[in-house]
Amino acid sequence: MAILSVEHKTLYRYARPVEFHDHRLMCRPRDSHDLRLLETGLAITPAAAVRWLHDVFGNSIAIASFQEPAAELCFLSSFKAEHYPVAPQDILIEEYARKLPFSYPAEEVADLGRTKERHYPDPEHRIDTWAKRFVGRKTAEGTLDTLVAMTKAIKKEFQYARREEMGVQAPVETLQLGSGSCRDFALFLMEAGRSLGLAARFVSGYLYDEKLVGAGDGLVGGGATHAWAEIYLPGAGWIELDPTNALIGGRNLIRVAVARDAGQAVPLSGSYTGTPEDYQGMTVEVKVTAG
User: How far apart are CA 266 and CA 244, in angstroms?
Assistant: First the structure.
C-alpha cells in the first residue's frame, strides 16, 4: 500500500482576454477497493461555477462554466489517496477462461457490450495476425500469460514517442510505424485483445515511480498523465495492463477514468471565443508525492 498525493496543473495562455465556453474535466478518481480517496481539491482561475456528474461509465465529470474573459486559464486539481495495486500472482481467473479461446457468461455479454467489438479498421487483419502469434505458446499457454506476453512485446518491439497533439493513432498505423504514445499503445493493446474475443477498456490516469515511495524527501517521481488498457477476465474482473512500461495489475498506476474508447477519456477539454492566433500555448505539470 502507498499513500500518494497528486497535483495536476494545466495552464492556457492567450494573447488577449478571451471568453471561455464550458470546460469538461476528468480529474477525480473513483473510490474502490484498490484506491481509497482521502482528500480532493479543484481550483480554477478565473473563477468558475462547477457542477459534477457521472458519465455513462460512472466516471466523475466536472463541468466548469465561466462568467468573465481572461488572458490565462488555469486548472489545478489535486487528490490524496491510498493505493492497493494487485500483484500479478494474485490475479485469479475462472477455470474455463484460463486458456484462449473462451466465451464470456451469457449474463455478462450484454453488459460488456461494445467493449468486445473492434473499433478501428483492419482490412488486412494485421492486428489479428500480430495478436495470434502469442496464443498457444509453450511459454505462454494461459490467457493471462498471453496478455502479459503481448504487453511486454509492445514495450520491446515499439518505440515510445511522446506526442503533444490531441487524439490517437489508428492501431494499424501504430503497427506500421512501430512507434506511438502511451495512448496509442493502450489502444493497440485493446484492439489486439478484442481480436482474440476479449473485452477491453481505455484508462486515463497517472504514473508514479514505486521505487521512491517512502523516500526521505517524499518524492515519488515527476509523474505524468498516462494511459493504459484494461482487459476483462472472468474471476479476476478488469485487469490493468500498461504496454508502455510492461506493467501488470495496476502497479505504479493511479486510475482516474475508464472508457470504451480513448476519445471518451480526455482529461480536460473545452473551447473559447476568439481567433486561432489568440492561443499562445499550454503547459501541464503533474507532481506525485508520497506520504
Answer: 18
Per-residue pLDDT tens over the stretch 229-270: 999 999 999 999 999 999 999 889 999 999 999 999 999 999
Helices and strands: H and E segment counts in the chain: 5, 17
pLDDT digits (tens, 9 = 90+) for 108-130: 999 999 999 999 999 999 999 99
The span from the CA of 148 to the CA of 12, in Å, is 39
Determine if the pTM surpasses 0.90.
yes
Smallest CA-to-CA distance from 154 within 102, 227, 78, 224 is with 227
Residues 23/267, Cβ–Cβ less than 8 Å: no
**Contact predicate 272/14, CB 8 Å:** yes
Is the N-terminal amide bond of 69 cis, ω within 30° of 0? Answer: no
Q: Which helix (H) or strand (E) holds 219?
A: strand 219-221
